[in-house]
Amino acid sequence: MSVYDRRDLGLLLLRLGAGGVLVAHGTQKLFGWFGGHGVEGTGQFMESIGYVPGKASAMASGLAEAGGGTLLALGLATPAAGAAAAGGMAGAAAVHAPNGFFNQEGGYEHAAILGLAATALAVAGPGRLSLDHALGHVVDRGWMVPAALAGAAAATALVVGARNRRLDRPEKGGGEQLEGQEALFEE
User: Fold this and answer.
1) Side-chain-facing half-sphere of 168: CA atoms under 13 Å
2) Which helix (H) or strand (E) holds 178?
3) 33 exposed, middle or buried (CB, 10 Å; 0-12, 13-18, 19+)?
4) How confident is the model at residue 171 (pLDDT cuts 50, 70, 90)?
């Protein structure tokens, strides 16, 4: 049946909304667009919060957000796109977690909802109003969902774990963030 239903429209709106926000944040990191600091400035910030090396961390974060967001918005390679974006948001949530849940306090709520939306899209699929559907789901197979999410979870656990270990080392100056700096780079 070629008639689109409200589920397809809902998935399209969710993909465009979440994907668009992710793209905006990723391009801030990569290119300095929308008031961002580009790779250099974001890299310095990443170093200050324990993501080392900073420039590589900024690139990885920016690509996960901009690349994952673009693919989500298009509905292309949805399992990999959702997993990449969710992994990036888990890394962001780790930074904001000490501030509690709510965003107005510098908390992780924004990163959490974007990560949850990306994960939900990876699991639910992009719907029929998508490039995945138009291409016969060649890069959106059922087995790809758990593989992509498991891969992203493992990579995120390694990166965030390494960051946490660095921050726990008092001899390296870990555990200290510059006051208010995390608000400059909210996810």
Assistant:
1) 6
2) none
3) middle
4) low
pLDDT digits (tens, 9 = 90+) for 100-152: 999 999 999 999 999 999 999 999 999 999 999 999 999 999 999 999 999 99
pLDDT one-digit tens code per residue, 115-128:
999 999 999 999 99
Q: How many CB atoms lie within 10 A of CB 31?
A: 13
Residues near 175 by Cβ (< 8 Å), separated by ≥ 6?
A: 167, 168
79-103 core/surface letters (b: 16 or more CB in 10 A; e: else): bbbbbbbbbbbbbbbbbbeebeeeb
Q: Would you say 68 and 25 are in contact if contact means Cβ atoms under 8 Å apart?
A: no
Supply φ then ψ for residue 99, to 5 degrees.
-90, 5
Compute how many other C-beta atoms are within 10 angstroms of the C-beta atom of residue 155: 17
Both tokens assigned to 69 = 């967001």
Question: Coil, strand or helix: which one is 136?
Answer: coil
Residue 94: helix, strand or coil by DSSP? helix
C-beta separation of 182 from 106 below 8 A:
yes
Contact 75, 16 (CB under 8 A): no
The single-letter code of the amino acid at 61 is S
- Residue in the block written with tokens 């170093």: 47
Q: Which of 143, 146, 159 is nearest to 60 (CA)?
A: 159
CB atoms inside a 10 Å sphere around CB 150: 11
CB count in 10 Å sphere of residue 141: 11
